[in-house]
Amino acid sequence: MENSRYPKFTFTWIGGFIMLAGFIIGSLFIAAFNVFWIFIFDENPQLKDWFLMASNAILFVTIIAFFDFFSVRPETKQKLNFNFSPTNFYTYFLIFPMMLGMMFIGEFVTSQIPITGPFFGKYYDFFTDLMSQLTDNPVVMILTAVIMAPIFEEIIFRGIIQKGMINKGVKPWKAIVIASIIFGLVHGNPWQFVGAILLGCVLGLVYYKTKSLLLPMLLHGFNNLCSSILILYTKNESFGEAFKVADYIILIIGIVLFSLFYYLFMKKYKVHYSEI
Predict the structure, then answer these.
(1) Residue 25's pLDDT band (cuts 50, 70, 90)
(2) CA angle 29, 143, 216 (to 5 degrees)
(3) pTM higher than the cut 0.85
């Protein structure tokens, strides 16, 4: 492991503060750019389709760069680097149905969260309005949700947080769950929180077992692509409503899919990967 091109960095609360500092600096840069644009062009760039995509990219890059320069390099004397190797076809045959099963389970669990009432009703209306603004330009939505978000978010939550905790000595299952909870929290609403945790656990498991960050990125993109298609063509993220199937049917299908392919992936899959 000493000769590995992948640095064996650790993730602690100090690393968390470093990433938070990167988020703050990135946010200040975006705010300054916003003021500059208004002053020069006399228009608000936040109303532009490209602004959300560009601002998210700046935030992600700044967070990752801060952790690299102020945590990884001082600790390991190496720059941040990840394994993005593809794997054999059989692996993909197992992980995508497993992911789809968890997506169905996540949809059912999320559907149990109230969308009406004095608190949930107003919050849900706000969240719905926000999501509707993100779908004004389908191209930007696809680029942001299906390509950019999976790449940057998997680097941060699986590649940095989960891997860094495991390198620190945290039990793998704990690191996967903790990274998934943080992943859910940053989504900022209860309806995505539950689904993000469940899906994050699958992404974390796949990354831990295969050691390749490419696979959770592809699975993350697959999940977001399905959600984007559902939003664009059915105005919601529900497989049940899209296919006119009861929620409990979606749950049963999800449990069967996830259980079967989880078993095959964990118990019958004999290929083991390592970073060298």
Answers:
(1) very high
(2) 95
(3) yes
